[in-house]
Description:
Layout: H1 4-9, H2 18-24, H3 36-44, H4 55-72, H5 75-84, E1 114-118, E2 129-136, H6 151-170, E3 179-182, E4 196-202, H7 206-213
Antiparallel strand pairs: 1-2, 2-4, 3-4
Amino acid sequence: MESQEDLDDDPPxxxxxxxxxxxxxxKDEDFKPHTWTNLKHIIANNDLESxxxxxxxxxxxxxWTKQTKQAYGTITNYICQERLQxxxxxxxxxxxxxxxxxxxxxxxxxxxxxxxxxxxxxYGMTPGITHIVVWLKTRFDVEPTVxxxxxxxxxxxxxxxxxxxxxxxxxxxxxxxxxxxxxNWTGLQSVRGMDHIxxxxxxxxxxxxxxxxxxxxxxx
Length: 220
């Protein structure tokens, strides 16, 4: 188990907030998982710092992050090589965000430029809620201070989520209130350098999940 001294001496690839440190001190049985209603409130208020993993998952994530950085240099390298199998262009600067050959520079304009996957390290949520990540080769336009989305980028995501997730569920009994999305601003991202959005869906049949993800599974 990671001790507080370990975290201070060898910090993970993302910044721990005070709430993270409080969470690490808890046991799973003392953790209250996010409900769908709670998640709606968090996302609607852009209170993304309140999102929490199960304490045991957070401990494992910190350990995994440390080991993965040692093996691959960065989490971004691991995601590119092992999970996405995307090869950055030779002109990419290894100290900066990777650059890819894309079919279209507009986010979500071409399916070859993004990948829908399960989140390998989802937040702690009640049963029936699934955490998806959509990785992109392209970049969103963001404001420069904290890296939050500009209105045009937000609209691109809204349109993508509508046609990809909501419209699909409408074809199978109705989407209702079963899809939400968010994007962490830069300071909250544990994997920086590659744009991605988070999509949460509720009570979705496995066959639809397989269609979205191409049958790819999360890490065991």
